[in-house]
Design a protein that fits this description.
The protein has about 100 residues and is α+β, with helices and mostly antiparallel strands. The protein has one domain: YaeB-like fold, CATH 3.30.2310. It has helices spanning about 10-25, 25-45, 100-105; strands at about 5, 50-55, 65-70, 70-80, 85-95. It has a five-stranded mixed sheet with strand order 1-5-4-3-2. A hairpin with a 2-residue loop joins strand 3 and strand 4 (about 70-80). The longest helix has 20 residues, at about 25-45.
Length: about 100
């Protein structure tokens, strides 16, 4: 059974900002990124525990996982799996080279 996908407002802002950044250099790359982001997100609905578990001190993020955007692996989708609701809640899209502890703790 597939899980539903819920995208947070912050995730949508992250994706939009990254699209604009990439489009300023090359619109084709930006469009390819968005297509990869969508397919990577949908994969999480089919295989919700595929992502790597992440451990931060913020207790509200217990169970947080991350999954790379195919073809743009430094960008990671951060999400929570809500088993009872059969839902994947996508929280953020972040470049993994950033200080993730500062962002999530």
């Amino acid at each position: 059974m597939n899980f539903s996908i819920e995208r947070s407002e912050q995730f949508l802002r992250d994706a939009e900002e990254l699209f604009v950044f990439l489009a300023e250099e090359d619109i084709d790359i930006a469009l390819r990124f968005m297509s990869s982001l969508e397919s990577s997100s949908m994969l999480l609905g089919k295989h919700p525990i595929i992502g790597s578990p992440r451990d931060f001190t913020n207790k509200a993020l217990h169970g947080l996982r991350s999954w790379p955007v195919k073809g743009f692996e430094s960008y990671r989708i951060f999400y929570l799996v809500e088993e009872k609701l059969k839902r994947v809640r996508i929280l953020r899209l972040i470049d993994s080279r950033r200080d993730l502890a500062a962002i999530f703790n």
